[in-house]
């Protein structure tokens, strides 16, 4: 009975020249909840993909109950009793719950006996206190329920070791507590749970032990009793995290530039995503929008920029009703700029060279064209000027933008969206996947724009960013704004309370 | 070294064509004919002989225009398999304009015929464009079905309402000589259509390369989401591009009728629309390369017949070779420098470039 | 007397509908299979033609219809391997690949047919003859229409419920449906997406080839150039119209066969009207049906998109 549980020794993994994991040691006790903390890009997901057989480690070994194992494929991982719940749920939405659970289940023979599986599944679900209808189609279920289906999927395959990758990022705040309860029940049933997160309060609430990863290496490994959230945050980032509000002048003007009233919109599939959203933004003000992903923020940005029609309500810009105007008019006549969330899919044409990406929004304007003719030479000169002023690192503006790093791509997008001197700037998740330096550059640009008197809507799920740059914070939940907090009250505690799921005290 | 690799890489379609010809040589050898002789007769006849060259140019007119009718929408991300039907509609409308309108000055009527052909084809191309943009119906299947409808429609018209009295098989009255397109090589069939095709190719190249309209269309082709974000009305553009593509296909039919056949025959296009697809892939969607590809392909077809006469080999082998060519080219285009290779390659260059070597931010492996 | 005459006319008409539907049904079932797995099989047209050519060659060389059937299926499987290799393994655009294959098969079969069948191209090949099923074939109207057919027709009767059963009642069918909709979900439970897709494509092409075999071995007994004549495209339209469900697709195929039989009947009854006006009917019917119904259906989510593990 020695060496029970899972042991990783000196695991190393490189992608090209990038060391994702650098000699990671990890011991996970059976029937415990083990949290793995780390910033974006710290190597958490890479580590888990290695455990699940999606990647092979370049060095080191994996021991399961004291026996070295080579996990060559997900199938092998499943045979070993390892199950993973991915951050993005791996469910086929058009299939029913039980169909998703039995999908690819070995040893089924020729007949698909759904009813029998459904019965067994219901029993299993009951034993963990999960209330799931096996014959319901997945797309009809709320996110929290879908996640339970994912967990049932791995339990149904007799997984003993369950890995959850950022499981709460898709949940609504009110679903989180139920989810954490579920984890405790799994532990009580003798399952080992690896819980990957960067949310400190959740880790503090549920884990037995915590390992902190930083830049591909273990920076701390300790029982939860010995760790305060503030300490964990310091180990995660490698320096003291202080909630700083960036230096900024007070508002110059009281003119309300943007007035949104009772906005309603639907997602493409038909669910109502915005259920009556109202707010004002003054000139030179940054209104932050905080909230868990998928609570209507994307739709709000699209409605403001004209990409999605509003079903009800109105938007005014400087007193003019712009609810029914199109994308082009909003961009060019009204001066609404947009930094979209999906850089690669929406904000850029990856196959185009850098200078063409600089002109995709304004190619019909005089700096890029005269009449029907493009002014390529001029476009390149303009781009080179931006590249200098916004510190975009590249070889040449003729290079396809695909080969720039995320931070440099984002800087170019910001240059493009800001250089046209907008009146309203909508920014969505601008720091996703960026390193610290690039994040700082982005925030500097945003503050400079504020100084110029632009109304700014800053949407992000990163509370820390929102609190450090915004003048007021609106919190969104389930298509509504649950509260707008003025600068003085925008403490972490208040926002946390509005989000509903976060703990009152320590928010790093 | 790198330069050389680059050239080899860029010329992939040429290697693919050579490989296809090699496999084709195998097919010829199976029939017991010396492939060397066969290819000699084929290419010598098609390109080196005055009359052969003229036939090649005459065939090139519809093939080149059909190729352009595939290239233009494909650069916007739409696969137009309907050039064949658009050719037929162009031929139908232009011959109706030539035969049914009251006789007038050729200077007026020829442009009218051309316009009618272009509008007919354009209308035929606009149908799948509209259905794709506003109803989400797959344009490939719709264009194919429309091909069959157009072919049968022309057969009906040529064998019914417009059929010449006592004709042995469906064709219309002859179009009067005043409306024929001028010939470009004396005493041959080579007519003005091929020059018009080349001019249109140049125009398409110019539009895509130098104008805002072309820039916007290219953006739709590369990333329609970004195009929407950039304020381009994607649906409207899709319909417009399919109209233009159809009009180009219609011109192919128009020139075929006014330049070569001088009547509306049933089944007058032996699949030129599909040859257009081959041209588009051979030319890698470049309007500048399209004339070269079309020249090669029409030479292959004309040469096939000459070869049949010279060495007694079935000219259908040319169709098989054409199929091989397109498969091989498709495969060759699938081989790409993958991004990882590129990045490592650029990284190495970056190291050489001392000024830029510092501060390279890396967020590859962007996890979680 | 006139009642009896009418009856035999109806029997005639419905037999025609059935015979015309068989190649389309086989091809359309193939289309359902591959599209459910997320691969557009545009080369069905080529598969029918390839299957027909294989059947003709096999029957000519072996002198038996069974030999023809085997060679026909083999030819179609070869086409399937090419499509799977190009579209699934190399990830080349599925539409482009399919069209390229159609062009290749058209050229290759025309050439090889002259080479192999040569002068005998117009002489009748050995084929399957109708086999009346004892009791059932004596039912009035239905009997002669349904139960006095050749073996491939009976095979089609089986193929429709069989493919329905496969897709909805077996674990493999579940995997196929999952892969067509959200392949990464299947990948994470240990199913090899490329392998399943390749198998589906090959099976799909063989079904298309079966349609070609039927044309040669049960209907016309000769091979002619481009004898598929757009049937593959009609089958693809039927797949969309039948919403990727074998039972509905079968109904759509019957609809197209009905319109084809109708146009033949119209041609026959109106010799003074040029027949081309009527030959348009099936294509026009597909077109109209697609335009009217297709806008509202939801195709398999991942159709036409190559699958690469890890996204981009």
UniProtKB/TrEMBL annotation, chain A:
GO MF annotations in UniProt: ATP binding; ATP hydrolysis activity
Gene3D superfamilies: P-loop containing nucleotide triphosphate hydrolases
ABC transporter domain segment(s): 6-240, 258-503
Domain of life, source organism: Bacteria
Database matches in Pfam families: ABC_tran
Entry annotated with the keyword Nucleotide-binding: yes
Record keywords: ATP-binding, Nucleotide-binding
Keyword Transferase: no
Family annotation (SMART domains): AAA (SM00382)
SUPFAM superfamilies given in the database record: P-loop containing nucleoside triphosphate hydrolases
Family in the record: Belongs to the ABC transporter superfamily.
Name the record gives this protein: ATP-binding cassette domain-containing protein
Automatic annotation (TrEMBL), chain B:
Name the record gives this protein: ABC transporter permease
Keyword vocabulary terms for this entry: Cell membrane, Membrane, Transmembrane, Transmembrane helix
Record keyword Transmembrane present: yes
Membrane-spanning ranges: 7-30, 50-74, 86-102, 108-127, 139-158, 190-217, 238-260, 272-297, 317-337
PANTHER family attached to this UniProt entry: ABC TRANSPORTER, PERMEASE PROTEIN, GUANOSINE ABC TRANSPORTER PERMEASE PROTEIN NUPP
Compartments it resides in: Cell membrane
Domain of life of the source: Bacteria
One Gene Ontology MF term: transmembrane transporter activity
GO cellular component, one term: plasma membrane
Membrane-topology annotation of the record: Multi-pass membrane protein
């Amino acid at each position: 009975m020695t060496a029970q549980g899972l042991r990783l020794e000196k695991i190393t993994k490189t992608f090209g020249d990038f060391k994702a994991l650098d000699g990671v040691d990890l011991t996970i006790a059976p029937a415990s909840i083990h949290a793995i903390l780390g910033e974006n890009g710290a190597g958490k997901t890479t580590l888990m993909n290695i455990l699940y057989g999606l990647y092979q480690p370049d060095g080191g070994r994996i021991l399961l109950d004291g026996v070295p194992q080579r996990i060559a494929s997900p199938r092998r991982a499943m045979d070993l009793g390892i199950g993973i719940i991915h951050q993005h749920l791996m469910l086929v939405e058009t299939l029913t719950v039980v169909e998703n659970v039995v999908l690819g289940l070995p040893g089924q023979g020729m007949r698909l006996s759904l009813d029998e599986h459904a019965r067994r599944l219901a029993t299993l679900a009951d034993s963990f206190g999960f209330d799931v209808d096996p014959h319901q189609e997945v797309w009809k279920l709320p996110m929290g329920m879908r996640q339970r289906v994912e967990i049932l999927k791995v339990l149904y395959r007799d997984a003993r070791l369950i890995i959850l990758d950022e499981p709460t990022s898709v949940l609504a705040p009110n679903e989180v507590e139920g989810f954490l309860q579920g984890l405790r029940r799994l532990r009580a049933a003798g399952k080992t749970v690896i819980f990957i997160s960067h949310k400190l309060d959740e880790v503090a609430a549920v884990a037995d032990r915590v390992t902190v990863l930083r830049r591909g290496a273990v920076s701390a490994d300790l029982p939860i009793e010995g760790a305060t959230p503030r300490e964990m945050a310091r180990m995660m980032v490698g320096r003291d995290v202080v909630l700083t509000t960036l230096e900024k002048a007070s508002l110059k003007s009281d003119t309300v530039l943007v007035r949104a009233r009772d906005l309603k919109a639907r997602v493409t599939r038909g669910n109502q995503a915005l259920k009556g959203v109202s707010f004002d933004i003054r000139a030179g003000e940054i209104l932050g929008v905080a909230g868990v992903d998928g609570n209507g923020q994307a739709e709000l940005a699209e409605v403001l920029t004209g990409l999605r029609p509003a079903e009800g309500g109105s938007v005014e810009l400087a007193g003019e009703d712009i609810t029914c105007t199109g994308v082009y008019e909003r961009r060019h006549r009204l001066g609404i700029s947009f930094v979209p969330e999906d850089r690669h899919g929406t904000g850029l044409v990856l196959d185009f060279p850098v200078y063409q990406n600089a002109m995709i929004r304004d190619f019909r304007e005089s700096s890029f064209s005269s009449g029907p003719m493009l002014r390529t030479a001029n476009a390149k000169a303009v781009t080179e000027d931006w590249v200098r002023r916004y510190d975009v690192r590249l070889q040449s503006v003729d290079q396809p933008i695909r080969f720039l790093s995320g931070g440099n791509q984002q800087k170019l997008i910001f240059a493009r969206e800001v250089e046209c001197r907008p009146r309203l700037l909508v920014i969505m998740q601008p720091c996703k996947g960026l390193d610290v330096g690039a994040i700082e550059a982005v925030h500097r640009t945003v503050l400079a724009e504020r100084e110029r008197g632009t109304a700014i809507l800053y949407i992000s799920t990163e509370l820390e960013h929102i609190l450090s740059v915004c003048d007021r914070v609106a919190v969104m939940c389930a298509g509504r704004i649950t509260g707008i907090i003025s600068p003085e009250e925008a403490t972490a505690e208040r926002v946390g309370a509005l989000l509903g799921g976060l703990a009152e005290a320590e928010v790093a | 070294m790198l330069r050389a690799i680059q050239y080899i890489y860029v010329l992939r379609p040429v290697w693919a064509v050579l490989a296809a010809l090699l496999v084709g040589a195998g097919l010829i050898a199976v029939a017991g004919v010396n492939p060397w002789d066969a290819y000699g007769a084929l290419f010598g006849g098609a390109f080196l002989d005055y009359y052969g060259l003229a036939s090649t140019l005459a065939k090139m007119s519809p093939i080149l225009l059909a190729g352009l009718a595939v290239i233009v929408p494909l650069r916007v991300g739409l696969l137009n398999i309907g050039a064949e039907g658009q050719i037929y509609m162009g031929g139908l409308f232009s011959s109706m304009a030539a035969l049914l309108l009251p006789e007038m000055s050729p200077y007026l009527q020829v442009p009218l015929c051309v316009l009618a052909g272009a509008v007919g084809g354009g209308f035929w191309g606009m149908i799948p464009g509209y259905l794709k943009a506003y109803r989400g119906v797959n344009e490939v299947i719709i264009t194919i079905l429309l091909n069959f409808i157009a072919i049968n429609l022309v057969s009906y018209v040529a064998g019914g309402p417009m059929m010449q009295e006592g004709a042995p098989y469906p064709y219309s009255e002859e179009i009067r000589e005043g409306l024929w397109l001028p010939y470009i090589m004396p005493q041959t069939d080579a007519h003005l259509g091929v020059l018009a095709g080349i001019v249109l190719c140049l125009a398409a190249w110019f539009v895509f390369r130098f104008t805002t309209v072309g820039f916007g269309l290219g953006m739709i082709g590369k990333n329609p989401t970004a195009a929407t974000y950039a304020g381009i009305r994607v649906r409207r553009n899709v319909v417009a591009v399919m109209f233009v593509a159809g009009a180009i296909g219609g011109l192919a039919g128009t020139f075929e009728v006014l330049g070569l056949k001088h009547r509306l025959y049933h089944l007058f296009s032996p699949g030129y629309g599909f040859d257009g697809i081959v041209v588009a892939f051979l030319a890698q969607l470049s309007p500048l390369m399209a004339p070269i590809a079309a020249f090669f392909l029409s030479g292959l077809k004309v040469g096939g017949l000459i070869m049949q006469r010279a060495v007694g080999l079935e000219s259908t082998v040319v169709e098989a070779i054409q199929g091989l060519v397109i498969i091989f080219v498709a495969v060759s285009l699938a081989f790409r420098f993958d991004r990882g290779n590129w990045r490592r390659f650029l990284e190495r260059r970056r190291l050489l470039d001392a000024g830029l070597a510092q501060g390279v931010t890396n967020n590859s492996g962007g996890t979680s | 007397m006139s009642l009896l005459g009418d009856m035999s006319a109806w029997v005639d008409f419905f037999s025609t509908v059935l015979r015309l539907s068989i190649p389309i049904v086989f091809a359309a079932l193939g289309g359902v299979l591959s599209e459910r797995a997320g691969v557009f099989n545009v080369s069905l047209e080529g598969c029918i033609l390839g299957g027909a050519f294989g059947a003709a060659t096999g029957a000519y060389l072996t002198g038996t219809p069974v030999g023809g059937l085997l060679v026909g299926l083999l030819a179609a499987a070869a086409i399937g391997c090419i499509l799977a290799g190009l579209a699934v393994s190399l990830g080349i655009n599925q539409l482009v690949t399919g069209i390229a294959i159609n062009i290749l098969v058209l050229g290759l079969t025309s050439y090889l047919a002259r080479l192999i069948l040569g002068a005998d191209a117009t002489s009748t090949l050995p084929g399957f003859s109708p086999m009346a099923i004892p009791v059932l074939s004596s039912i009035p109207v239905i009997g002669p229409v349904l139960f006095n057919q050749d073996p491939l027709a009976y095979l089609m009767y089986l193929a429709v419920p069989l493919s329905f059963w496969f897709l909805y009642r077996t674990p493999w069918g579940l995997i196929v449906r999952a892969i067509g909709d959200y392949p990464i979900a299947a990948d994470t439970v240990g199913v090899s997406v490329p392998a399943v897709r390749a198998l589906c494509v090959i099976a799909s092409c063989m079904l298309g080839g079966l349609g070609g075999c039927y044309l040669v071995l049960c209907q016309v007994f000769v091979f002619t150039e481009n004898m598929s004549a757009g049937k593959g495209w009609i089958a693809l339209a039927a797949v969309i119209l039948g919403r990727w469900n074998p039972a509905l697709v079968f109904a759509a195929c019957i609809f197209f066969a009905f319109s084809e039989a109708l146009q033949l009947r119209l041609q026959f009854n109106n010799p003074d009207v040029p027949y081309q006006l009527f030959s348009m009917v099936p294509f026009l019917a597909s077109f109209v049906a697609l335009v009217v119904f297709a806008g509202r259906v939801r195709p398999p989510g991942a159709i036409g998109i190559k699958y690469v593990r890890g996204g981009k």
